[in-house]
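Changelog-linked ticket: zinc ion example.
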Amino acid sequence: MDLKTLLGTTFDCVCGKRHHIPTEKLFYSRDAFAALEQAAAEIIDGQHYLIVADQRTWEKAGGKVA
Ligand SMILES: [Zn+2]
């Protein structure tokens, strides 16, 4: 199953529970940064964004995103 087909959906799982995936967009590629600005503009109509990262992800990507 392609994970992207589950984004933003609620579904009855084989485990017997109903799950909701609130994440609407996922970028996983070497050029994901190229899609970030456009994706952020589609989600939020504003000039300010909150970047959530831990130390490891900040070092790898957070600083570049900021
Ligand atoms: Zn489940």
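Closing comment: Example verified and attached. Residues 3-65 form one domain. The chain has a mean pLDDT of 87.
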